[in-house]
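ok trying this again, last paste got cut off
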Amino acid sequence: MSAQTAPGLHLAAPAGTAVRTRTLHTTHKTPAQRVGAAAWWVAVVIVAILTVFPLFWTLVTSLKPAGDILSGALELVPRTVTLENYERVLTEVPFGRYFLNSMLLAVAGVVLNLFFGSLAGYAFAKLKFRGKRALFVTLLGSLMVPGIVTMVPSFLVLRAIPFAGGNNLVGQGGVGLLNTWWAIILPGAAGAFAVFFMRQFFSSIPDELGEAARIDGASEFRIFAQVYLPLAKAGAAVLAILTFQAGWNSFMWPLIVLNVQEMWTVQVGLASFVTDYATDYGPLMAGTVITSLPVLLLFVFAQRYIIEGVSHVNSR
């Protein structure tokens, strides 16, 4: 039978076959829901503006001549665009040296914090030993102590290291590890957060993998390095990113323990544009833009790992 029908001919549906019709259902929001949605979007826009505006203002200010910075501080479009501030920040201070110092300290902090934090996290997650729970509770309690509280004790410990920096056997007579890279690296070599963070990842890996490796005669360190650590690489990547960010942005501690200008970091070096009587905003903003680039690029390319790691920890 032809698929075409003559005009005016209507084909009835076969017996027992229900004719289905699709209806479009329109969801109507109540006035309260519309107000709530509008308020949510307004709040999102405000938060976005408050977040982006300081970064944009810093970039715009770094491109303004010195005279326009003070006379038109809130102007978001520069009257005259200049790179003079970037030239000054690279020539008036050894900014390249500061940049390399910060990169060295941040990378060293990542390596040590990742290694020791993973070892301790593995021990708390997979090994059985006396006092394990008490030690872990103490570790968690240390996370509640502000870092500013431990600065003076840490400074005194570093200054009293025996046979370092002219010290004698009892740690007297010299400066210890002050004015050395170790004064920055050692205090953060195994942070409490790193131990807790990696412990959460190792706890989610089945114990049967380690037991099978032990039956095969693998040592405990080999089980850690070849069985568990590769499975926790997502957590290790997130920890590395967060550690790098913390080390790169550190200001107070390097300012305290490093008195030699050649060893300053970028954060301490930027403070040289701020004096008791005036602030040189042009080079300061230009240096801030350059200093922010490594961390911003790191977050742009690694934000997926950060979200994955944080959500994993929160789900435990």
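PB: full thing came through this time. The two ends are 65 Å apart (CA to CA).
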